[in-house]
Amino acid sequence: MVTPVRSSRHQTRPVSFRLVEGEFERATRVRSRGGGLYDADIPAGWDIAGNANGGYLIALAARAMIDATGRPPLSLTAHYLAPGRPGPCDVSVDLVRVGRRTATASARLRSHGVDSLALLGTFGEQGAPGPLFIGTEPPDLPPIDQCVRAKPPGGEAVSGFGDRVVVRIDPADAGFRLGEPSGRPEISGWFEFTDHQRTDELGLLLVADAFAPVCFNVPSVPVGWTPTLELTVHVRGVPEPGPLRCRFRSRCLQAGLFEEDGEIWDAGGALVAQSRQLALLPRG
Questions:
Q1: Which pTM does this prediction carry?
Q2: Is 102 left (phi over 0), alpha (psi -120 to 50) or beta?
Q3: Which of 5, 47, 117, 156 could in theory staple to 68 by disulfide, Cβ–Cβ 3.0 to 4.6 A?
Q4: Average pLDDT per block of 10 residues along the chain, 284 residues long
């Protein structure tokens, strides 16, 4: 773990967040150059057709932001400016505000000399006391081995991402893969890393963008590329070990765009993350 950035304006606390060792942890390592600048690499295998998965890119940039703030993520919003491609990249982090309970930072991730991602996030420790109300519940899923293993089409020649994560979709939501969409813009299923690495707060950022777009289950929408314009993830807790239950759904497909709301639940039945993204509908 590299030393947090310090300046005369901002004082960060020592990093209490520790990442779980595994392939994902190694793929999101950053190296501090000082002054809020970080070097990193986007390894092959976390991409689809040469474009790095959007959730993976957020996690990579967040790794630098965690180091700079000294705290794990609570909320992170990313705007996608250009595809992130395998190879060297860099992340610049600016500490906007550092308070007693939370810190706010902005960041930019550059890949091949082009800005790929602009981010703004709030970072702080989980577990503050207060009232509890959860107005939703985990999706009722078949056992994980009875759900459909989903990978991006084209196999390893097009994407290695599907070999690094295990996404298993509820059979009721998997008909789009056979040209038989359910008619509901919703997809639920299980998530875990292929190497069984425990999903931590950083991993939740990837999970939020790991499933197929829900618009594929609308009969009039073709299966195709759906570029994400903006993705926000709220981290609500630290997951217990075990596969995650996930539900993603949309209410509005309009003017070539759709929104997608996500809920991520851990093995103990706790809500650990929520997400919302805005993306372009496939052409054609």
A1: 0.90
A2: beta
A3: 5
A4: 34 46 91 97 90 96 97 97 94 96 97 96 87 91 96 62 94 96 98 94 97 96 94 96 97 96 97 98 88
